[in-house]
Amino acid sequence: MKTREMQVKEATLKHLHNGFEFIMDAPRERTFPLFGANRERMWAPGWKPKFLYPFPAEDVAGAVFRVRHGHEEAVWVNTVFDERNGHIQYAYFLPDVMVTVIDIQLTQLGAERTQATVIYERTALSAKANAMVVQRGEGDRRMGPEWEMQINRYLQRNKP
To answer: What is the structure's pLDDT at 11?
Structure first.
C-alpha cells in the first residue's frame, strides 16, 4: 500500500526550464525570418509543419500549425513574432503529455553576427509524462551546436 507521501511525490508534475545560445554569421534582419515555422523548413531537415492558419502558410504572430512528435501530433501557436525586437515565441501542446513554450531572442553582435538565445519550458500534464519531459529537456540543452551548424550552412549557401 502506498503512503500519502508516496502518492503526492508520484503526482508531482515535472516542469523544466533550460536552453542554449549560439552565433549566426549574418545580421539579425537576415536571421530573424529563419525562426518562423514556415521558413524554418529551409534549414531544418525533417521540419514539416502543417499550417492551419494562415493558409497559405505565413510566419506571423497567431499562426497555428501541427507538427508530428514521434507517434503524437502537437498543436503549435506562434505567440510572438516581433521582428523589430528580435523576439519569437511558440507554445505547443501534446494532449495528455506536455505543454512546451519556446522563447527565442536574437541580439545583433556587430554588423554581421547575431546571437540566438533559446529557452525551453516544458511542463508534464501527467505523472506518466514526467520521464518524457526530462528526456526532452536534456535534449533541449544539446541542440545549440546543431542549430548553429544548420543555420550557418544555410546562410553560407544562400548569400544575398
So the answer is: 60
In a domain, 83, yes or no: yes
Q: What is the per-residue pLDDT across 38-81, written as a single tens digit (0 to 9) for each?
A: 999 999 999 999 999 999 999 999 999 999 977 889 999 999 99
CATH number for the domain including 63? Answer: 3.30.530.20
Q: Which residues contact 46 (CB under 8 A, 6 or more apart)?
A: none
Neighbours of 84 (CB within 10 A): 6
- Asked if residue 20 is part of any domain, the answer here is yes
Q: Is the pLDDT score of 107 beyond 80?
A: yes
Residue 27 domain flag: yes
The cell for 78 is: 506562434
Angle at 66 between CA 105 and CA 69, to 5 degrees: 85
Q: Which strands make up the sheet holding 15-24, listed edge to edge?
A: 15-24, 113-124, 98-109, 87-94, 72-82, 64-69, 50-53
Question: How many domains is the chain partitioned into structurally?
Answer: 1
Residue pair 35/150 in contact (Cβ under 8 Å)? The answer is no
pTM value? 0.89
Extract the C-alpha cell encoding 72: 503524437
Domain that holds residue 127: 13-157
